[in-house]
C-alpha cells in the first residue's frame, strides 16, 4: 500500500468497510475472470465507486491484485481451516479439512471456483509479484495440510511410517480432481468419486 | 469452418501447411495466455501473416479458438495416447499413459502447460461453444483412460472388482496434483510424489 492510501485508510472505520467491500467484489471477479481482470476501472464499475475513490484505497492495479489475493486467502482460511480446527486433532480434523475444501468455493459464493487455484494457473508461467504471492500462499497451505496429517500420525490413527508430505499431495490432488470432475459430470457424481478416493487414501495409511 | 475458408483450403497443400502453422502458434499462445487471447489480430502478429490471410483460414475468433482446441487435442493424442498404444494392453499401458501425461506439455514445448487443462479452468463458468467443446474433449479423454484401466482388469493384473472409473479419476487427480506441485516445488520433487501416489494407486488394486 502506498503511504497516502495507508493514511487515508487507517483512522476511518468507514474506510475499512469500503475497502472490505471492494475486496469482496474483487475476489468474486478474480474467481470468475482471473486476477488479471482486476483493474481500478473494472472494480470502480462493479462497486459503483469513482476511480479516484478506488485509487485512494489501492494505488495501482498490482496493489489491488495483491490485496485481492490476501482476501481470497483470508476467506479460504475462514471457510476451510477455521471450522476444521473445531474438530479434534487427528483424522477427524483431516476429514473436516477435506469436506470443507470441496465445498468452500460454493459456500463463499465464488461462482468461478477457488480463486487461489485459478491464480496458480493464471500465473504459472508469468514471473512477477503475483506469481510469487500465489506460490507463497499455496506453499503455506501445503505446510498446514501436512501438519494436520502429521497430527493424525501422532495420535496413532495413521501408521508411524506414513509420509505426511505424500498424503498432503494426494489430498490436494483429489481436491483438484474434484474441481475438474465437478465441471464434467456434475457435483453429485464428483463428490462420490472424491470421497471414495479420500477413503482409499486414509485406509491405506490407517494403523 | 465457413464455406469460403473450406474452399480456399481444400485444394492447396500450401494452404494446409499454412493452416497447420497458424494452429501450432495458436496452441502455443493458448497454453501461455489462454484461448480467449486468440484473436485474428494477435495470431496475425504472431505468425507474420496479414489479418485478411488469417480470415481466409478462420472466419471468426470462435472458429480459430475451436480449431486451436482441436489441434491441442490432436497433439495430446499424438504425445500421450499414441506412444502408450505401443505398450501391451494392461498395466504397462496404463503406466505408459501416466508417464506420458506428466511430461507431454514439456515435450510439446507448451511453456504454459496443458492447454486442455487450462481451457477447463478458463471456460469452467463461461457457457458457450468453447465450454461445450472442452467438456466434450475432457469427457472423451476420461472414457479412453477408463478403457485402458478396464483392460488391466481384463488381463487379470488388477482385481476383478476394481472400479475403473474411480481409478481413472484418481489417475487424473494425480496428474493435476503434479501440474500444481511442479509450479510449487519444481519438477524433480513433483515427479517423485506423483510416481509414489500412482504406485500406491496401482498397488491397492493389483491382484
Average pLDDT score of chain A = 91
CATH superfamily of chain A: Tetracycline Repressor, domain 2
**Category from helices, strands and their pairing of chain A:** mainly alpha
The tally of structural domains of chain A comes to 1
Low-confidence stretches of chain A: 1-9
> CATH topology of chain A, anyone?
Tetracycline Repressor, domain 2
Helix content of chain A: over 70%
**CATH class label of chain A:** Mainly Alpha
Radius of gyration of chain A: 19 Å
Shape of chain A: elongated
The total count of helices of chain A amounts to: 10
Q: List SSEs of chain A in N-to-C order.
A: HHHHHHHHHH
Strand content of chain A: under 5%
Greatest interface: A-B, 36 and 36 residues
> Biggest sheet of chain A, in brief?
none
- CATH architecture level-2 label of chain A: Orthogonal Bundle
Oligomer: homodimer
What is the CA-CA span between the terminal residues of chain A?
50 Å
Task: Summarize the topology.
2 copies of one chain form a homodimer.
Chain A: H1 3-9, H2 13-33, H3 40-47, H4 51-57, H5 61-85, H6 91-107, H7 115-123, H8 129-154, H9 164-185, H10 187-205
